[in-house]
């Protein structure tokens, strides 16, 4: 799975968090000013990365002015730095949720790699699935869902690593 860009995450977040479910800047600004203050961080990121101007006396225009002064070269890394160092709790939460979403994607990628390696090693060692389940102390239903159906939520990375060590012990 590819890493999620901040621009893509902004688009997704704005549509999900706004009541109007639109990317119209005018509608989003109206909503932010009147009823939805949670839109501060995604709207700030979206305006900065798309180089949109906001000229009203709100917290959003202040932050947009500050980020443009601090980081004139528009980049996702600059925006993430600004969000992380911001005094606004909403900005920090938004940055954390973006980073954790990417970490979750990385974990899923690692589990896919472990799945392939474990399946290859299992074939080489001629160890049955049942025996591997018992040695690793894994529920056989979760094992089946993880390996045969590709459901990454069924096993943790720790259990995947345990299975690798067990299989390495059984190699000739």
Tell how many strands the DSSP assignment holds.
0
Which blocks of ≥5 consecutive residues have pLDDT under 50?
Answer: none
Biggest β-sheet: count, sense, barrel?
none
Helical content (DSSP H or I, runs of 4+): over 70%
Number of domains: 2
Rg, Cα atoms, Å: 23 Å
Structural shape? elongated
Termini gap: 34 Å
The percentage of residues in β strands lies in under 5%
Rounded mean pLDDT score: 85
Written as H for each helix and E for each strand, in order along the chain, the element string is HHHHHHHHH
Q: Pairing-aware structural class of the strands and helices? A: mainly alpha
What is the count of helical runs? 9
Give a verbal description of the structure.
The chain is built from nine helices and no strands. The longest helix is centred in the middle third of the chain and has 37 residues, at 89-125. It has helices at residues 6-17, 25-34, 40-49, 59-70, 76-85, 89-125, 129-136, 140-147, 157-170. It has two domains: 6-100, no CATH class; 126-170. Helix 5 crosses helix 6 (89-125). It has 172 residues and is mainly α. The two termini are 34 Å apart.
Give keywords.
single chain; 172 residues; mainly alpha; 9 helices; 0% strand; elongated
Which SSEs are present, and which pair or pack?
Layout: H1 6-17, H2 25-34, H3 40-49, H4 59-70, H5 76-85, H6 89-125, H7 129-136, H8 140-147, H9 157-170
Helix pairs in contact: 1-3, 3-4, 5-6, 6-9
